[in-house]
Write a structure and sequence with these properties.
- The protein is built from 12 helices and 15 strands.
- It has 363 residues and is of the alpha/beta class.
- It folds into 2 domains: 4-159 and 306-360, Quinone Oxidoreductase, Chain A, domain 1, CATH 3.90.180.10; 174-302, NAD(P)-binding Rossmann-like Domain (Rossmann fold, 3-Layer(aba) Sandwich).
- Strands 3, 4, 5, 6, 7, 14 and 15 form a 7-stranded mixed sheet that branches.
- Strand 12, helix 10 (290-295) and strand 13 form a beta-alpha-beta unit.
- Helix 5 crosses helix 6 (188-199) and helix 6 packs parallel to helix 7.
- The structure holds zinc ion (ZN) (2 copies).
- One zinc ion is lined by residues 94-95, 98, 100-101, 109-111.
- The site of one zinc ion (ZN) has 5 residues, from loops.
Length: 363
């Protein structure tokens, strides 16, 4: 077996390079993953552009699928996985001993343990991100087997895109049979949200976007959106009113990243409605009409990342092949083009409007 592997390292703002790292020795408690595909997240573009975490030097990449190259006996027993299995890995694994971890909220671990933005590649054994040929899987890394019949482009969306949406809309938003859900923003998370809302039983799913989202609107339709609103042509509140005969939505889901959209969400839900936001607003404050929140007893719920239950549900959806989720991945780059991939995901490449960018480190 090879002694070293290649990874793309973010050294500072807009500064990436390919570096070689030693491939770690695996003991009975841990494992090594050969990365087959890794998604480029909006968070990655923020870090590259300098508005996110600054744990440098860093191997980015927290949305990934791969095959187990090596696994210790204890880790194999805990995870139920063996060498050669294809798995997806949750982005956070937590320390296991802090209060949030003990309460099962390892996504809120105070020690911030996870892939792609929390642990620098200066920390041995270095491979803490999936813009790399291999990723290190410590004892606490949470693995889920996924069928090899599923296209890699769909498998790569399991945890971060679909696992997130299932948790945000289903488990946190409480979408249930017959609900009307309005999704603000037609990016990967909004599109994943259509699937999560439909699977949770929503009767009507409305999604908003802009002129530039033409391709995304086509995808939204394929995934089952009932109504698509171009907010550059029709005001979203007026549209939701028209579609629901004045009843408005049960749940609004803001994944637009726009403070203006989030501010508008209080106009979109009915009395007692719920607003869920996983939105990252780049440090900007959102002006919310709290009088409406109070009088209408609206609940605003923050949502961040996936967990065991939501990933398990996402795997069932992905394995069912009911939705053409692989079509969301419109651009795939090789590892040596990782920087280009991040730029493409940040719409920095003229004429390119990817829905989801991924990297295949074998290329
Ligand atoms: Zn992500
Ligand atoms: Zn912890």
């Amino acid at each position: 077996m090879k002694k070293t592997c290649r990874a793309a390292v973010l050294k500072g703002v807009r500064d990436m390079e390919i570096q070689e790292f030693p491939i770690p020795k695996i003991s009975e408690d841990d494992a090594l993953l050969k990365v087959e595909m890794v998604g480029v997240c909006g968070t990655d573009t923020h870090m590259y552009q300098g508005s996110g975490s600054n744990v440098w030097p860093l191997i980015m990449g927290h949305e990934f699928v791969g095959t187990i190259e090596e696994i210790g006996a204890v880790k194999a027993q805990i995870s139920g996985c063996k060498k050669g299995d294809r798995v997806v890995v949750e982005s956070r694994f937590g320390c296991g001993v802090c209060e949030p971890c003990i309460r099962g909220k390892y996504n809120q671990c105070v020690h911030k343990l996870g892939y792609g933005f929390m642990v620098s590649c200066d920390t041995p054994p270095h491979l803490w991100g999936a813009y790399s040929e291999y990723v290190y899987l410590p004892k606490r890394a949470i693995l889920h087997k996924i069928s090899k019949d599923v296209p890699l482009k769909a498998a790569v969306l399991t945890c971060a895109v679909l696992g997130d949406s299932v948790r945000w809309l289903g488990h946190i938003g409480g979408v249930s049979l017959g609900d009307t859900v309005v999704i603000l923003g037609a990016g990967q998370q909004g599109l994943g949200g259509i699937v999560a809302a439909k699977e949770a039983g929503a009767k009507t799913v409305i999604i908003t976007g802009r002129n530039k989202d033409k391709e995304r609107f086509k995808m939204a339709e394929k995934l089952g959106a009932d109504h698509i609103i171009n907010i550059e042509k029709e005001d979203e509140a007026a549209a939701v009113k028209r579609i629901t005969d004045g009843e408005m939505a049960d749940i609004a889901f803001d994944c637009s990243g726009s403070t203006a959209a989030m501010a508008k969400s209080t106009e979109l839900v009915k009395k007692g409605g719920v607003i869920v936001t996983p939105g990252m607003y780049g440090g900007k404050k959102t002006p919310i009409d709290f009088d409406t929140v109070v009088f209408n007893e609206i609940q605003i719920r923050g949502a961040h990342t996936h967990n065991l239950a939501s990933v398990k549900a996402a795997i069932d959806i992905i394995n069912s092949r009911k939705y053409p989720l692989e079509e969301l991945v419109t651009h795939v780059y090789g590892l040596s083009q990782a920087e280009l991939a991040v730029q493409a995901a940040g719409y920095e490449i003229e004429g390119e409007f990817p829905i989801k960018v991924a990297i295949d480190p074998s290329k």
